[in-house]
Amino acid sequence: MQSRPWLIDAHLDLAYNTLEGRDPTLPLEQYRAADPMAKVQRATTTLEELRLAGVRLCFGTIFTMPQGKNSMSDATIPGYTDHAGAKQQARQNLDVYHRWEDRGLIRLLKTRQDMTDHLDSWTPDSPLGLILLMEGADPIRDAADLPYWVDQGVRLIGLAWQKTRFAGGTATPGPLTDAGKELVQAMKDLGLTVDASHLDDAAFWDTVEIGPQLIASHSNSRALVDGNRHLTDDMVRAIAGCGGMVGLVFCNSFIRRGWKRGQPRPTLGDLALHAQHYANLIGWQRIGLGTDMDGGFGAEGSPDPIDRYRDVPQFLDAIPTEHREAVAHRNWERWLRERF
Ligand SMILES: [Zn+2]
């Protein structure tokens, strides 16, 4: 275990979990005992679990839930219906990260200097480094509002989750809207990165045409699982072609076609099939982790034998030895040092 490489995880929803009444600052046993979602899922991810797995840096989302759309849980958070409501939720996410930073639990990495300092001076006592990724852009009023969010530290933005005012999204197809095109152009001008995960195909190709920096923080392959939540081979090639990265997501229904809760779980070897498929298209140098392990699917929805986040490094055993360190952190680290 000790010999496994350290990790960068490109997709965790740490703050949003607190909006659902959870406290990822607790050790996992206490977290599970106090978890209001315990009836629907077995929690896996706390700050301590991330440390035990060797995560030194993650992209932490500002995630906002539209009204009436939380199918994964019986949480009672009212969803937003307009920009103001989305912005309010986003501010709540930000407040969580700021409180954790005040307690020394995380370090927000807002600039290239912050990021390189964190990686270069990392010690086992260092807090988790966290880069803000906005998942679903409805908290942004319009392109002119973008500098406000950059000041807050947001460096990556996924325009969609489900459809937003800017782009078609998962199971809600559509192109970039006019406001979406303006936002992507403004992101390009500011050197920000578009997260293509959740973008519908039409919106994805509109984005490629504008040409911002592009990654997919948490997306598996549509060659293995159907639906617009997953990347086609052409999309993967387009992301790699502009120097981007793809993060592997540890959600069972995104690993095995047709998987439903209660069925035998896919394995880490099944997840490795997505990595191998990507590698066949673009090589191993643009593949990393974007586990989404606290994204609402729990241990029941994670590949066998994962029970808690500290088990995540076992995935590396399922890919070729010579590429383990690259997938664990070196590929994301290279992308960050070149592009962040
Ligand atoms: Zn997501």
TrEMBL record:
InterPro entries: Metal_Hydrolase, Pept_M19. Gene3D superfamilies: Metal-dependent hydrolases (3.20.20.140). This is Dipeptidase. It comes from Deinococcus antarcticus.
